[in-house]
Design goal:
With 70 residues, the chain is mostly helical. The chain contains 2 helices and no strands. The protein has a domain of 42 residues. The longest helix is centred in the last third of the chain and has 21 residues. The chain starts with 16 loop residues before the first helix and ends in an 8-residue tail after the last helix.
């Protein structure tokens, strides 16, 4: 797990698209091993960040709230 990726669910205030994109960027950096990809790899890198950002948005939207009642 990337230590710099924070939990976005139940965040106050709610996670913004910028928060989700930053988390996706950190994930892609970790998985790819590139902090900054070459020009040849930049389009693939950017596409992966966009896809993961969209998946994160869908996930957070679809998660059911959990009751913390005893």
């Amino acid at each position: 797990m990337c230590r710099s990726i924070k939990v976005l669910r139940k965040q106050t205030p709610p996670a913004t698209p910028v928060d989700m994109q930053a988390a996706a960027l950190q994930f892609v950096r970790k998985v790819s091993g590139f902090r900054k990809p070459s020009k040849a790899n930049q389009p693939s890198f950017d596409a992966a960040v966009a896809e993961i950002t969209q998946a994160t948005e869908r996930l957070l939207r679809r998660l059911e709230p959990e009751d913390r009642a005893p």
